[in-house]
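yo

u said u wanted the structure for the complex thing, so here. seqs first:
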Amino acid sequence: MGQHLKPMSTTTHHDQPASLPTRLFNLADHEARARDRLDASAWAYYSGGAADEITLRANRAAWDALALRPRVLRPLAGLSLASQLLGQALPCPLLVAPMAHQRLAHPDGELATAVAAAAVGAGLVLSQQSSHPLEAVAAHCLADPERGPFWFQLHALGERGWLRELIARAEAAGVEALVLTVDAPLNGVRDRERRAGFALPAGLATPHLPPASASSLDGLLAQAPSWDDVAWLQANSRLPLLLKGVTHPLDAAQACALGVAGLIVSNHGGRVLDTMPASATLLPEVAAVVAGRCALLVDGGIRRGTDVLKALALGADAVLIGRPVLHGLASAGAAGVAHVLRLLQDELAAAMALCGLRNLSEIDPSCLQSPRDIRT
Ligand SMILES: Cc1cc2nc3c(=O)[nH]c(=O)nc-3n(C[C@H](O)[C@H](O)[C@H](O)COP(=O)(O)O)c2cc1C
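structre next:
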């Protein structure tokens, strides 16, 4: 199962190991290079959103619409991106979002992503739809002393005995938290994907999916995770449990009442329910309900260090990076992923310094222009 690249005539030396070209200055440059290298159907799968892609576009527009308010003349020496998350050291507030089938972007898939994330001190959330076994992925990141957290994402819970074994495997492999994705009981209506004729290639491994997955609508709905499953997972694993895709304040309140370890505010990168609000719009409401009772993360459309700073100013402890990681992977394998994450770290450090911030703990809503300051 190889990389889903364009035919030889239209791409650069895809038999050779991908190396990092020098003229990649930001995440958009990696995106353009990935688009050149991937075939049209894999590109549609990676970059597309649901239906009219209103949420997909809104995610980007909402970060852009927030304005930063710098403070000046403050001490900056010793600027640090480090903090703590779930009682563990967090070298920087970036984690790789769980993303399925990374072998489509590069033959090393999740293994390359894991090596790269660990090397630059970013966390990794491994998708249940990983194309490599979680033990192999763990072996590629856990030994690195600089690494960030290593979490495993679930959504297809299957039958309890099978799920118990999967959780035991994750615990034995060194996974540090479980993430239950709650916003995607079924796939979004993905017009772009269907138009491009995207289909998963035969032979693409998915070693962590339950043996018999439903395909009919009724079957999928019957298997959709529930609040009972949340309680079951808390009772049947010693790992902290986070919920990904909680966006309604009432759901956030219910999750906090159950004592979850964290919430990830996400609209799945605009891939599931189109016309949901942008994640930057959803975050403050959830942050107000959570009020520090559990960890809070956000993803969707984060493409610049300034976006990360804005997310933290709105109450997030850390952010997840989705598609840009796949772009780096398609663009130049592990080196591409590491470069994407480094670019974001460097941009975040620059943005913090220019805002007069030396530590993540100094980031608060006063870094942002509030709506009442905006004069039209
Ligand atoms: C190709 C692709 C596959 C994804 N697969 C999963 C998955 O397996 N599980 C999951 O919880 N989210 C999945 N997501 C959603 C991401 O975890 C994340 O929420 C989203 O990509 C963040 O938005 P961004 O891509 O704009 O950064 C996927 C996203 C993409 C682009």
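Residues 45-46, 59, 97-100, 127, 129, 153, 181, 244, 266, 268-269, 271, 299-302, 321-323 surround flavin mononucleotide (CB under 6 Å). Strands lie at 83-85, 88-90, 94-96, 123-126, 150-154, 177-181, 241-244, 262-265, 295-299, 318-321.
cya
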